[in-house]
Amino acid sequence: MMSAGRRHSERERRARIIGADGEYQAARKLAQAASVMPADPAALQLRLLQTIVEVAAEKNSRVIIVPVPVEVLRFLDRAASAAGRARRSAAEARPFVQAETGHGESPERQSAPRALP
Fold it and tell me: What is the Cα–Cα distance from 90 to 85, expressed in whole angstroms?
């Protein structure tokens, strides 16, 4: 016959295994959902709205969520990517501009001003 402490430990062990299995299944489902969402932009927006409803339904919830349309986030992402590309292009072009104008060269490499005849 098991002692009360041992039964408690066994129940706790089983509860942890069940909890870990639930977490594993939830993680797999979330990974599946994440692979579906990029293919259907409305899915992400619906999930956002569902989350807002869940948070609002909580007791004593004092959280205010201001939803941002997914399209705005995509626009900002594209704008940031374009700005990054423009900055890289400008940085890559800068050495050529400096070489042509003489700016950025060491004093030894700059030619001395010529006297006019």
Answer: 9
